[in-house]
Design goal:
Length: about 400
């Protein structure tokens, strides 16, 4: 049986608040497999506002987003996918619903589409078209079909949710009970797993007993930011802290000075949500990659390692790090203009000038590619990428958005 998806849901609009954003981030960090966002806009204007929120939250979470509802035209499906949705959700109830579903599947493939049918009748009225043109059904009722269904349950009864999870046709669950778990979805999964439900609960492939600890039963943990790989801190775990980290998804350590467990962020709110745990070749040190909330250091510094002893100049070899650094310089020029800066010259001239340069540099790559000397194309590609980054900064597009889009493909 496939592992069931746990997907908190939210209705989005142009009136979303910062607390709504925070809640979706809590769902993401707390173990959500997907996020289900409904846009029940009454007009194109409201829909555009909802899309702005979708773009914003897609930058802030890692969980795949399933979003839709207001899709009277194929253009709306395209906008949802371009804004960051993994799947566009098409309401099949309006007259246009099935046609939009068909056009979307023809353009993007059925794996990028899901259908929303509020009732059993809504599904069976269009069953064949739904199965043919999308990969998932989202419904507020459990539907007896061989097609995968994400059920939005209003039930607060745990046994009913367990029964849903055990149904082979149920793709996953959403709704009131799931939403109520907030940032504790990892714990909900652990509970479902204990009841025999096939969910993607966090579990370690190596028992703590297989790790090499010191005489005090502790093992050091090096903690990195999962996005930047910056080393944030070093702490220690005993077996209980190790098991608690796997159970809750929050980094839990053993304090040598206080002789007790402590959850990072318990008092400061600067939690660390674990993304991965691995051990070194000798199994005597752990490496944790985490989503860090706020600064890791008690001094307010991002990392505990900020006291530089010595530094030798060196070249950065990580391509994304280089791109990010150049991009940061470009955005800094935009915010803090510098006299004589070519970058500021482009920003001052505006979007048409930037686009003209992007086009010119693309043409230069084509010309250089016809030259047998490989060095020339290297320079032209570098020029092109610089001008593309100026365009990205002008349109407020980040490298993370680009890499996320490539990953989705």
């Amino acid at each position: 049986m496939n592992k069931k998806v746990i997907a908190p849901c939210m209705v989005i609009s142009g009136e979303m608040t910062e607390s709504d954003r925070t809640l979706l981030q809590d769902y993401d960090r707390g173990g959500a497999d997907e996020l289900l966002l409904f846009d029940f806009s009454n007009s194109s204007e409201e829909h555009e506002q909802a899309l702005l929120f979708l773009r914003d939250i897609a930058r802030k979470v890692d969980a795949p987003i399933l979003c839709g509802g207001y899709t009277p035209r194929f253009e709306d499906v395209k906008k949802l996918l371009y804004a960051g949705a993994k799947r566009a959700l098409v309401d099949v109830r309006p007259d246009t619903g099935i046609e939009v579903l068909k056009e979307g599947a023809a353009r993007f493939g059925k794996e990028k589409l899901a259908a929303y049918a509020k009732t059993v009748d809504d599904f069976f009225d269009h069953a064949e078209d739904i199965k043919k043109n999308c990969s998932l059904l989202v419904s507020e009722e459990s539907i007896d079909t061989d097609f995968p269904v994400l059920v939005i349950s209003k039930s607060e009864n745990v046994q009913e949710l367990i029964d849903l999870c055990m149904d082979e046709t149920v793709y996953g669950i959403s709704g009131s009970y799931v939403n109520g778990k907030g940032g504790n979805i990892t714990e909900l999964k652990a509970m479902l797993k204990e009841q025999g439900c096939p969910v993607s609960a966090m579990e370690g492939s190596i028992p703590f007993s297989a790790l090499r600890t010191g005489e005090n039963g502790l093992i050091p943990v090096v903690v990195q930011d999962y996005l930047t790989n910056q080393v944030l801190m070093v702490a220690y775990m005993n077996e209980e802290a190790y098991e608690q980290t796997l159970k809750t998804g929050k980094m839990t350590y053993y304090s040598r000075s206080r002789s007790c467990l402590w959850v990072k962020g318990e008092t400061s709110g600067h939690f660390q949500y674990v993304k991965s745990l691995s051990t070194d070749c000798d199994s005597d040190t752990l490496l944790a990659k985490v989503a860090q909330i706020g600064p890791a250091c008690h001094t307010g510094s991002t990392s505990c390692f900020f006291k530089e002893i010595m530094k030798k100049n060196y070249r950065e070899e990580n391509p994304l790090t280089v791109f990010e650094r150049v991009y940061d310089v470009i955005t800094d020029r935009k915010q803090h203009p510098k006299e004589g800066s070519y970058t500021n010259y482009l920003f001052d001239k505006g979007i048409d000038k930037i686009l003209k340069k992007v086009g010119e540099e693309a043409a230069e790559i084509i010309i250089a590619a016809k030259n047998p000397e490989p060095e020339e194309i290297k320079y032209e590609i570098a020029d092109f990428l610089y001008h593309v980054m100026v365009l990205m900064a002008e349109k407020e597009i980040t490298w993370k958005q680009i890499t996320d889009e490539l990953e989705n493909r």
